[in-house]
Amino acid sequence: MSKPFSVKQSLAMLQQVIEQLPAKRKVAPAPSAPELQETLDISLNNQGVDTEQLVCAAKAYLEYNPDVSQVAFYKLLYSGLNTPALLGDWVTSLSNATMHTYQVSPVATLMELELIKQWNNLVGFTQGDGVMVSGGSQANLIAMLLARHKRCPDIKTKGLQGQTLVAFVSDQAHYSSLKAANVLGIGSDNLIAVSSDDQGRLDPQALEFAIQSALAKGHTPFFVGLTAGTTVIGAYDPIQPSSLIAKKYDLWLHVDGAWGAPVLFSSEHRHLLADSELADSVTWDAHKLMNVPVTAAVILVKQSGLLRQACSGGGGDYLFHSDENEAYNLGERSIQCGRRADALKVWMSWKAIGSQGFSDKIDHLFDCKTHCVEQIESISELQMLAPAAYLNVLFRYQPSEELDEQQLRQLNIAICKKLKAQGTYIDYATYKGRSGIRLILANSDCQRSDIDDMLLACISAGDEIYKGK
Ligand SMILES: Cc1ncc(COP(=O)(O)O)c(C=O)c1O
Fold first, then answer.
1. Which of 117, 154, 188, 234 is the most interior residue, by most CB within 10 Å?
2. Looking at ligand 1, which residue's alpha carbon is closest to its atom 14?
3. Distance in Å, CA 249 to ligand 1 centroid
């Protein structure tokens, strides 16, 4: 069977797609799913189509996808366009390397090891290792697996055997911990949500109390999961006091830094993640604040060798040959077999701007955040709903004291909807029972004037909806 087109032709088609894109795409262009289904031909058929139709399909794909590269995309924990990483991503697809053995991913393996070394240096794991994973959710799953393996290594071969293992995270933790507890057979009921303080940080006293309650029931506590940069408000859980408690009860201490770990690049702001070296493992997403195209993430582990102990098994007959490069076969540290070579795109962007480039970017975004909070606090119709320790700003339009929580929620949801139609993509979220607009600052193209425009747009949308102005 002949190939429909060559690599060179595919490059020419890509160029065509890019050149014909409108200079400024809509940030949130997609109509409802049924409408889009009507608009586009998504069907697959018995007969193939020509290259022109493929170019049209690729253009339509981009046209209807939210343009996350624009500053006006404030909705999620990723945005912006990291062009060196994009180049790396394209080359990665061309190589189609897979990360189980050095033989089929020689350069990517060395790059992944270099990245892990650099990340571990930032965290303070002097002898650590790690492996790249599909995202923060998988990294959190592996952290819980390591904790389980450390506490009860027999579970790997014999299963749970009636034990009740108990894990602890704060009530602000990302939902991936629930999934991890489910997948690992811990049971989501045995993931205890420890209360957080008024700054959204895990309360160490409540943690110790929860551990003692689990022990009193005859259960086996094994895992404490802290968050560095919570999803809704960007809070950093206190590592030092939690570490003392984890040590006292012999528990694994994990830090989910999927969103907030990159703060370690910045000498000005790394204090938020002080004591990171006290953790046993750290999750770090490169596809969030480092703006690398999804997916790119890592699980970093203080104790070298444990990943291999917990994750390895099988494949020796045909895949993991004992040759001179055996020690470089990252597949035995992973729960995946085929794994995309995500290292190249991260490496390319790090190589292009250096650690200093990420530090500058983070400092700039903190400056935008501070400006944003100052503006909100100076405008009577706007109200902050939580402290903004990191790059999340949770606020709301509140034109009158008389509106109840439900009315304020509906009003702010309506503002988000209106802004989306106007080309600014923000979202709403709830924190400790109060709902408002969650703004995420992750795109370093953002300037103070963009923040001013966005806040003005919120106020005029709010005025229009509430006062009918
Ligand atoms: C704190 C935190 N941890 C983990 C995750 C999950 O990361 P991923 O989407 O890469 O699986 C998120 C996602 O938003 C997050 O905010």
1. 234
2. 231
3. 27
